[in-house]
Amino acid sequence: MVPVNWTNKGLDRLKHSNLTYSDIDKLSLSNIPNGSASRFWVHLCMAYVITFWTCFMLKREYQNIALMRLQFLANDQMRPNQFTVLVRNIPTDPHESICELVEHFFKVNHPDQYLTFQAVHDATKLSELVKTRKQMQNLLDYNNNKHMRTLSKRPVIKMGFLGCCGEEADGIKYYTSMVESLTREISEEKERLRTGTKSIVPAAFVSFKSRWGAAICAQTQQSRDPTEWITEWAAEPRDIYYDNLALPYVDLKLRRIIVAVAYFFLTFFFMIPIAFVQSLANIEGIEKAFPFLKPLIEVRLLKSIIQGFLPGIALKIFLLFLPRILMQMSKFEGFVSTSSLERRSASRFYMFQFINVFLGSIVTGTAFQQLNSFLNQSANDIPKTIGVSIPMKATFFITYIMVDGWAGVAGEILRLKPLIIYHLKNTFLVRTENDREEATDPGTIGFNTAVSPILLPFIIVFFGLAYVVYRHQVINVYNQKYESAGKFWPDVHRRVLTALIVSQLLLMGLLNTKQAPKSTPLLLVLPVLTIGFHMHCKGRYQPAFVTYSLQEAMVKDTLERTREPNLNLKAFFRNAYAHPEFRVGENLEKEMAVEKPHTTPELVATKRGSWRNTSLPSKHSCPA
């Protein structure tokens, strides 16, 4: 591709015009003259080669990852989430509490497979108390350490604003009394949650005797009303985002509409900093449009910095806080697992990068770069100028890849940011061993072509470095927050194909502006083939990432029963999905026990009238 583009004189013939370009732009499609059919056929053939090669590699990768996922699930040790279903939007009943209603419903509709359930509590107040107690305990440890260093003098604190003024008090006695008081409040709040019913939300974690029974429940409609008794596979206990379990299910659609509107405006208004970044990237265009800035811009050092790395650095700074904003938006939407929060945030970050960083940079960059040309030519010539100037934006993306890609990967292996933050915390905030452990916590890993072939070497270097560095970081540095068994892959597959389709459409538009309309019918075939390939992969491989086949579940259950015939599943599930704050300072076996020893009754226990009592089915009858 490079020799085909370089050996033309298209840009040299436009020297008389107001078009702004550099020597590196001669490596792009812009250097091919309009109407040069023989040269454009090379780009057309390469588009087909890239499309078929990409689809072949994606299909092979999808097949391998789906197989590895099934093998992992088959060989994985027993986990609570393999037997557990999250049930939401449980309807209210005037005769029964939510706990009684859940037990009654699943004993009737899943009589042979239902085992136990864990109620979901709104533990917001308890979480605040536990957090405050942790802070007070940390301050108590600090004052005890301080007293151990100077036994002759007891630590003194001031009770006023930020501990800077007010009445003095003995630090150890004060924080000891605070910890004891908060401990009592926590115990009282736990008892209130355990014995009361007002804190129970219309959701529950229901566990079954087998994976087969859980698969039946999670993947079928439970009620004639599809908006009630909504079931889905429960995530791992460590993956659950408990704060969102208390949200009313009926509010989720409204929340998602609000977030969609907010995301639209965030994307729209971010075009302003994108335009600013592109104004920095096109010095020649600004000099022609605003000659009075030329003396300042022509300073060699300043010009090199502005044209070289300042645009990429500025764009990186503007994007610095975007992942946190998108994560907060996902939390507001109401997703109930950390993995789903990260998948949603990654999806929005991808769309944001595509709309603003890619399309926004192309549009605003082209406008700034060819501003003088647009102002001094007829409207009929503007499409031709766009066709020439858009491929020349490769120079900006080269610098952006170097700043965000190369420098980002180097910074990841050096971990400069965590190192600086650790030393700042160690100097100003670390007072106890708990503080030091939090400061040294590595955290978890975050998720966030034919037109200009000069980009490819930079991208290849980036992916090569990223593979080596992040493989090392995932294995040796970061903590694992949850196990999703490759569930992110369908999103990756879909985004690669989206980028491929966009590149095909852009090439089609560029060739039209370059007066090569005969290529349009042939290029139209590529998006259609790519979409068809996506639908094939979605139907063939994606079910392995969404559902759990009954065949696999039965095989796993049979092998497990053979190896461990006396396994006590009820003890295994007890408190597996209890709110984390219930596990602070107390014996788990005494917390939130919803199952009591009892013999199997002939009738399902209920507080309804006698006409509503439902008999358990016999061996010869059908379940109700």
CATH topology annotation of the domain at 80-123 and 199-235 and 549-612: Alpha-Beta Plaits
User: How many strands, what sense, and barrel or not for the largest sheet?
Assistant: 4 strands, antiparallel
Any idea of the CATH class of the domain at 80-123 and 199-235 and 549-612? Alpha Beta
**DSSP, total strands:** 6
- Taking all Cα atoms into account, the compactness measure Rg is 31 Å
Name the helicity range. Answer: 55-70%
Strand order of the largest sheet: 2-5-1-6
What's the CATH H-level superfamily name of the domain at 80-123 and 199-235 and 549-612?
RRM (RNA recognition motif) domain
- Our estimate of the beta-strand percent is 5-15%
Mean pLDDT: 77
Molecular shape: globular
End-to-end separation: 68 Å
Q: Helix- and strand-based class?
A: mainly alpha
As residue ranges, the low-confidence spans are 448-454, 586-603, 608-624
* Number of helical segments with 4 or more residues: 25
CATH architecture of the domain at 80-123 and 199-235 and 549-612: 2-Layer Sandwich
Domain CSC1/OSCA1-like 7TM region: 255-450
GO molecular function: calcium-activated cation channel activity
Membrane topology: Multi-pass membrane protein
Protein name: CSC1/OSCA1-like 7TM region domain-containing protein
Q: What is this structure, in a nutshell?
A:
The protein has 624 residues and is mainly α. It is 58% helix and 5% strand. It contains 25 helices and six strands.
